[in-house]
TrEMBL record:
Origin superkingdom: Bacteria
Primary localisation category: membrane
Stored Pfam families: MMPL
Record GO cellular component, one term: plasma membrane
Membrane topology note: Multi-pass membrane protein
All copies of domain SSD, residue ranges: 282-405, 664-795
Family matches, as PANTHER family: BLR2997 PROTEIN, MEMBRANE PROTEIN MJ1562-RELATED
Transmembrane segments: 256-272, 279-303, 309-330, 351-370, 382-406, 440-457, 645-663, 670-690, 744-764, 770-796
Cytoplasm as UniProt keyword: no
UniProt protein name: SSD domain-containing protein
UniProt subcellular location: Cell membrane
């Protein structure tokens, strides 16, 4: 193993010598490679949609796409307006003006509903009349009273357009299912070929994230002009929440990149006191980051909620390789009195293998996410790993070439001379404590392990998008008010498929569907309730009542099978197309919609299971499909739990194998995983004891941290082996290791932890938790390598026999 390691180290030194000598050619080749990548950056997109959490071929996403193709977009933008009297003449006039402006000026809207155009079905003799509630504007108090009476008597309006208390009304905007992109081209080509319509249909894409943002921005800009003391407006719904997420995400990304860059630059300057030591690592990091984002653009991968941490993460992680090599380079440069070529060759030869292994283990930890069932988590694993390896490439190739061109002075740094003895004293104290009390340290470690494992049993999962915002955030306030007053803002959709034409003409089946509406509307599981439920029977009962002199007792499903198709036909002939929203053209499928609050995805578990069980038991002969935004939120959380278990296991196996390979001994390699696992177990335990939820972001802490924590362990073990082989004394080898590698470990830990602590300045709670947890884990990883790793090495190597033997 020693010969192999020496051979690899010599290869790294030879590569550094090559890049140093042929610096111009190296930089030109690298410029062409990087330029080709960066030319694709304009194609990078952002996607914060909920369905973006699922893979393209995920069965749940395919079912949701089929639903959207059949029934349109399920997502609602809800504009709720509060007033003392929502039927006051002046209020209704202002509401009408708002309704019309939203209808005429908001793009990509398929339908808009409010009290102004709410469906009102009534009979007039033998005629069925389906009209807008305020089609004939009331001119007298009596006419207004009649309108109010009709509205309050209509079960459809309750919790849909009017709150139970009567002090809120809503304007509900339903967005288009499909994007408008390419429609102009389709219109031009239409008619040139017989199959042009089929082709364009196949190529159609669903409403894009950018188009959804246009809808939300248009709505918010319009409603802002209508806000008044007696016309309080709240805007919420799935599209609004995700659009605000995107804005916060883009704002935070820019802020984090700037702060991380400033933090890294400041810290590097304080440690090295050289401008080149700041410029070179930041250049490596910048090229690595931009190249990684370019790869995402090339492969059509959008930046999504979890991948928003990628830029700041790569900036913090990518600097580590440069720091280790530059630390040795400048030390050697001063020692050999300014021989840059020899210093570069020595530094890369000395640390090249360790840097390669740390990059490999970090990438291995990140690649554990690539198998995740949550699409953006898998994307993060793939592209973060690619970014880490790109950082390695730029470090090994770019640093020697640039160092050859940059003039350097042999500085004698007063600050360094003053700081080094202090740091040496601290590291010496740590070494004496660790090597002098190994058993006590391991006993304390074991106790912390036990307490942490108990804490882990208390960890709770969460995916609460609305509660990611601060309590005083306008979107959180609006969502919570609308969920409370209008009893929900997102939908759970269920498709009942009879599998036969006109299968919905069966009175018994329709009665069971109607009974299910009543059952669901009474259902409540924890925080989740059904604020409203409706289906095809909602329209059928309106028709049946209208055709029977509008008498309330006829608001029911007709028991005569011959009446059902006739009544539906009369409704269609009235000019209304509302049946298209609840059934297909062959009356074989029924859509069943349940409006629920926007809550933690975990909270939906019991509710959705109860609903599914009810429909499976009530309709055993039908094919039941559950879909919609609520279902996707629920499925996302289930996938997070599965992905976490899978990614942690893969990361542990991959990194353990790499550690054994690097160290060359099975027992020592396995023991070296103890200081790597310790910070992860401790952090998860703290999350359990302090009730920090394990969500889409905090689940990343473990695999990211183990990939980073192992870096310091590799550097420690790599140097410990070298010194132990020279001295045969484990205690002395520990002291030498701490005095040589301990400084670089401290620098990289400070840079990494500060890079993650910056996330605590995020505008969202989930990123705040992710930041402090990851930063804390990285610091405890350093402490584990300062105390636990030396204690283990002293106990394992008491006989003073070199590891290589």
């Amino acid at each position: 193993m020693n010969r192999i390691r020496e051979r690899i180290e010599n290869k790294f030194a030879a590569a550094a010598r090559l890049f140093y000598r042929h610096n111009i050619i190296t930089l030109l080749v690298l410029a062409v490679f990087t330029g080709a990548l960066l030319s694709q950056l304009p194609n990078l997109t952002v996607d914060t949609s909920t369905e973006g959490f699922l893979h393209d071929q995920d069965p749940d996403l395919l079912a949701y796409n089929d639903f959207r193709d059949q029934f349109g977009n399920t997502e609602m933008v809800i504009v709720a307006v509060k007033s003392k009297d929502v039927f006051a003449p002046e209020f209704l006039k202002k509401l009408r003006k708002l309704h019309v402006e939203l209808r005429d000026n908001v793009p990509y809207v398929d339908d808009i509903n409010s009290l102004i155009n709410a469906r009102s079905t009534r009979g007039d003799g033998d005629r069925l009349i389906v009209e807008d509630l305020l089609e004939n504007w009331p001119k007298t108090p009596e006419e207004l009273a009649a309108v109010k009476e009709r509205a309050l008597a209509n079960p459809l309006y309750k919790n849909m357009l009017i709150s139970e208390k009567g002090d809120f009304t809503a304007v509900v905007l339903q967005m288009q299912a499909y994007s408008s992109q390419g429609e102009e081209v389709d219109d031009v080509l239409d008619g040139f070929t017989e199959d042009s319509e089929t082709t364009s249909q196949e190529e159609r894409i669903f409403l894009t994230d950018a188009e959804t943002s246009e809808v939300v921005q248009a709505v918010t800009s319009i409603v802002d002009t209508y806000r008044a003391p007696n016309f309080e407006i709240y805007v919420a719904g799935g599209p609004v929440v995700t659009d605000f997420l995107k804005k916060a995400m883009m704002k935070d990304m820019r802020k984090f990149m700037l702060l991380v860059g400033l933090t890294i630059g400041t810290f590097l300057f304080l440690m090295f006191r050289r401008a080149s030591a700041v410029f070179l690592p930041l250049l490596v990091v910048a090229f690595s980051l931009l190249s990684t984002l370019a790869l995402m653009a090339i492969f059509g991968t959008a930046i999504k909620l979890p991948t928003q941490i990628l830029p700041s993460f790569l900036m913090a992680v990518g600097v580590g390789d440069s720091v280790h090599i530059l630390a040795i380079f400048f030390h050697r440069f001063r020692k050999n009195k300014g021989d840059k070529a020899e210093a570069v060759e020595y530094a890369v030869g000395h640390s090249g293998l360790a840097v390669f292994m740390t990059s490999l283990t970090t990438a291995g930890g990140l690649l554990s996410f690539s198998t995740a069932d949550v699409a953006p988590i898998a994307d993060l694993g793939i592209y973060a790993a690619a970014g880490v390896m790109l950082a390695l490439l730029y470090t090994i190739v770019l640093l020697p070439a640039l160092l050859a061109l940059i003039p350097l002075k042999d500085q004698k740094e007063k600050t360094s001379q003053q700081t080094t003895p202090r740091l040496d004293n601290i590291l010496s104290t740590i070494g004496h404590v660790a090597t002098g009390n190994p058993k006590a340290i391991l006993v304390i470690t074991a106790l912390i392990f036990i307490v942490s494992i108990v804490g882990i049993t208390r960890v709770k999962f969460s995916h609460d998008v609305v509660r990611w915002y601060k309590k005083d955030s306008p979107i959180r306030i609006a969502s919570e008010i609308i969920d409370e007053e209008m009893r929900g803002s997102i939908a759970l959709e269920i498709i009942l498929d009879t599998g036969k034409v006109n299968g919905l003409y069966d009175p018994d089946l329709l009665q069971r569907i109607d009974n299910s509406v009543g059952y669901v509307e009474q259902l409540k599981k924890g925080k989740i309730f059904a604020g409203k439920a409706w289906s095809i029977t909602t329209i059928l009962k309106e028709i049946h009542q209208a055709l029977n002199e509008n008498r309330p007792e006829f608001y029911a499903v007709p028991d005569n099978p011959d009446l059902i198709p006739q009544e539906f036909l009369l409704f269609e002939n009235s000019g209304s197309d509302d049946l298209e929203d609840v059934t297909d053209s062959q009356f074989s499928k029924a859509r069943f919609t349940i409006k629920v609050p926007f809550q933690d995805a975990v909270a939906y578990t019991d509710f959705i299971q109860t609903v599914n069980e009810h429909f499976q038991q009530t309709f055993p002969e039908l094919k039941i499909t559950t879909t919609g935004m609520t279902s996707i939120l629920f499925q996302t959380m289930a996938r997070v739990i599965r992905s976490m278990a899978k990614s942690y296991t893969i990361a542990l196996i991959v990194i353990t194998l790499l550690m054994i390979l690097l160290i060359g001994k099975m027992r020592t390699g396995l023991l070296s995983m103890i200081p790597n696992l310790f910070p992860i177990i401790l952090t998860l335990g703290i999350m359990g004891w302090f009730q920090v939820p394990l969500d889409l972001f905090t689940m990343l802490v473990g695999s990211i941290s183990i990939g980073l924590a192992v870096d310091d362990t590799i550097h420690f073990m790599h140097n410990f082996r070298r010194y132990f082989e020279q001295t045969g004394d484990a205690k002395q080898a520990v002291m030498e290791t701490l005095h040589s590698t301990g400084r670089a470990m401290l620098i990289t830990t400070c840079v990494l932890s500060l890079g993650f602590f910056i996330f605590m300045f995020a505008s969202m709670n989930n990123l705040f938790n992710f930041g402090w947890l990851t930063g804390f884990t990285i610091i405890t990883a350093l402490l584990a390598d300062y105390f636990i790793a030396p204690a283990l090495m002293v106990l394992v190597n008491r006989s003073k026999i070199p590891i290589s033997s």
